[in-house]
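The record is passed on directly below:
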Amino acid sequence: MSILLLKSACVLMLVVLLPVFSMAQTGRGTITTGASFLLLSPDARTTGVAEAGTGLLADANSVFVNAAKLNFAGEKGLSFSYTPWMRQLVKDEHLGYLTAFHRLSRREVLGVSVKYLDMGEINFRDDTGNLSQRYNAGEISIDASYSRLLGEHFAMALTARYIHSNLGSGTYNGLDMDQARAFAVDLGVYSEKSYVNSRHFSKRFAWGVNLTNMGTKLNYTNAKESFLPMNLRMGVGYGLNNDPNNRLTLLLDVTKLLVPSRPQYRINEQGNMTTEIEKGRDPDRSVSSALFTSFFDAPGGFREELSEFAVSGGLEFCYYRQFFLRTGYFYEDPEKGNRQHLAAGVGFRVRSLQIDIGYLAPMAQRFTARNELKFTLSFHPGNILDMD
């Protein structure tokens, strides 16, 4: 007996298929992956600078951007973030993120995090309209990170991740859907150094590289498997202090998915797409092969490869270590996803407790996120965010 979704086909595409396959509203060359929720920036501080978080001063949320930063984050910290997800489309989706870290020794730090995307209740009905099954769709990742200081200003981190994607079980358009599981690792390096020029002026420079979600493939259906969103993040940060209490940090991050580019398939005389590849490479390859070949497999050549890099820039201003202002801009090529948004954020701190709010306003015509708000509550004993 075939099973149909109670919700409209539009809602199905937006709520279920988009998070799974990371499809864009426009763009013939959009790269597709499974479990794309792993790329969602979960905390308000990173969102406020348009995801250019590598060069920010380290805190508990550094586990997401680059876990190697934890060695520069103090002794311990705890943070919880919440996002009412895609509220312009549905009312029961939520993104939650809980992360913490603890210093084991002068050179070693352990971090953990949990990210959960609740996609709400979905009802399946049969051909006669009778309710067949009801379930709550959701995806979760559980991380454990180990960061070690290898020099006075340089650290490396390894993160192990378990992913569980539950989009329901059943048959839709001839595809048998089931829950999917995967394992992945992150590998990050990070360096940070401060320079004091005078009694009332100093500067700070930081850079980092992080390879994320390198792991097994996901199998949702009886069709082919999907890659995890393996991602390369490179970023820098430059901070200026005109006195010990005020700081301006300039940020720049560049990211690229390390999964196969979509090839260009041959069109037959009837105008239908065939399975024969005209340009590009066969996307059905191993994970290890994809990590390396993703830099030169685009059917459009070098120019298209460059378009697969997304760029984000931002800044954070700290006023008397208690009030924070942030802004930034994120750009992705229209043919590769078309994510283009302006970000802004504020933060307030009282002793070791900090509240951050991030706001995202898309500049392109996209329906995946509009006027999105994120909230983060952090606890860092010892005011570690003041440490340079």
